[in-house]
Design brief:
The chain is an alpha+beta fold and 334 residues long. 43% of the residues lie in helices and 19% in strands. The protein has helices spanning 3-16, 20-31, 36-43, 49-86, 104-118, 132-135, 147-150, 168-176, 217-232, 285-291, 307-315, 322-325, 328-331, and strands at 122-123, 129-131, 160-162, 181-190, 202-212, 238-243, 248-257, 274-283, 299-306. Helix 2 (20-31) packs antiparallel against helix 4 (49-86), helix 5 packs across helix 11 and helix 8 (168-176) packs across helix 10. Bound molecules: zinc ion.
């Protein structure tokens, strides 16, 4: 092979190299220690002077040219390698951002609202910062009433406090609306309680109020039974026990059959087979008078369901504090 053929072959191969590895092999093939061009250059010393000059010139030029060509090609291939790294596949699916979901308490609250709406109730809202009048006085709990001891709370001043119950909205709503009416008031309440597995300083209630001409205890029981059946998605036995609240007469506790043991008795229901879920009663004439209604004309019932308790029973959670900790390991389960 003469030098000219060598040059043509070498340049053609270098230009056609498809990757760095191939290029490296070509560099060794021509310019390596035992490379074809290297051999020729090495053989120069054995040649006659004029031949040596002629071939030497050409060979050195070729070496220079080949070096430059390989270097140039190396840069090209390197660049295309980078381009591969930066190449964007527009058909690839996007990165999914982790999606959150509603807190279990909010999920339950919305379910409760939906069920009561299906029973003809409106969902209303009321202030968390309440006056002494609406929270206590209008509900027949005067300043010296012992019921205030059980509902000690956080006072802003003598007149303003964080509401201890959602019940102030009974009078608030009735003052502005004419009967007949059916409302529920879900929301946060506050008491100065010590925190334990079933008590928190901040908890959620759902107040209920129904006022019409012929409302009886039976109306209350039937509405609550319908609610519980839908909420737990099964038939739930209930019973009423007498109780006392200053703003209802008669007052009672509505118990439901313990769903954990099906009424046989377990640690959750303290072996009674029953759980207190919804305290309530018939609206006291005093409360109707506070709102400007005639107690001779209107009747009604009111209740204050503990929402946290409903969440705990629905999901079988044994500590109310879990609902407030914001622990993702707990919350991700719902
Ligand atoms: Zn039980």
């Amino acid at each position: 092979m003469n030098l000219k053929e060598l040059r043509d072959a070498a340049l053609k191969e270098v230009l056609g190299a498809k990757n760095l590895e191939e290029l490296e092999k070509l560099e060794i093939k021509y310019l390596g220690r035992k490379g074809e061009l290297t051999e020729i250059l090495r053989g120069l010393k054995d040649m006659a002077e004029d031949e040596r000059k002629k071939i030497g010139n050409f060979a050195n030029q070729l070496k220079y040219e080949l070096d430059g060509m390989i270097e140039k090609k190396r840069k090209e291939l390197g660049k295309s390698l980078e381009a591969v790294k930066e190449w964007i596949d527009i058909t690839a699916p996007g990165k999914k951002l982790p999606a959150g979901h509603l807190h279990p308490r909010t999920q339950v609250m919305r379910q409760v609202e939906k069920i009561f709406q299906s029973l003809g109730f409106s969902v209303i809202d009321g202030p968390e910062l309440e006056t002494d009048y609406y929270n206590f006085e209008a509900l027949r709990i005067p300043k010296d009433h012992p019921a205030r001891d059980m509902q000690d709370t956080f006072y802003i001043n003598d007149n303003l406090l964080l509401r201890t119950q959602t019940s102030p909205n009974q009078v608030r709503y009735m003052e502005k609306h004419n009967p007949p009416l059916r409302v529920i008031v879900p929301g946060k309440c506050f008491r100065r309680d010590s925190t334990d597995a079933s008590h928190e300083v901040q908890f959620y209630q759902v107040e209920g109020l129904m006022v019409d001409k012929n409302i009886s205890v039976a109306s209350f029981k039937s509405v609550i039974s319908a609610f519980l059946k839908q909420f737990f998605n099964r038939e739930v036995k209930t019973r009423l026990r007498p109780s006392f609240f200053p703003f209802t007469e008669p007052s009672f506790e509505l118990d439901m059959e313990c769903l954990i043991c099906d009424g046989k008795g377990c640690s959750v229901c303290k072996d009674t087979g029953w759980l207190e879920v919804i305290p309530g009663g018939m609206v006291h004439p005093f409360v109707f008078k506070s709102a400007g209604y005639s107690p001779y004309e209107w009747q009604g019932y009111a209740f204050g369901m503990g929402l946290d308790r409903m969440v705990m029973m629905k999901y079988k959670i044994n500590d109310v504090r879990l609902l407030n900790f914001g622990d993702m390991r707990f919350l991700k389960q719902f």
